[in-house]
UniProtKB/TrEMBL annotation:
<dbReference type="Pfam" id="PF24441">
    <property type="entry name" value="DUF7560"/>
</dbReference>
<dbReference type="InterPro" id="IPR055982">
    <property type="entry name" value="DUF7560"/>
</dbReference>
<protein>
    <recommendedName>
        <fullName>Small CPxCG-related zinc finger protein</fullName>
    </recommendedName>
</protein>
Length: 48
């Protein structure tokens, strides 16, 4: 049974795509894109 939330992160700046869980989503919102460092907001995530 998989109850863990999954999200698809797509950077609005460099367009890197990463599958993330809730913890990684929170980290990205705090520190920005892992690749280019662009600020990340809720709009960069889609539920997978
Ligand atoms: Zn980026």
């Amino acid at each position: 049974m998989n109850t863990e939330a999954r999200f698809q992160f797509v950077c609005p700046d460099c367009e890197v795509t990463v599958a993330v869980d809730t913890a990684k989503r929170t980290a990205l919102l705090a520190v920005g894109c892992v690749r280019c460092g662009a600020p990340v907001d809720d709009g960069a995530f889609a539920t997978a």
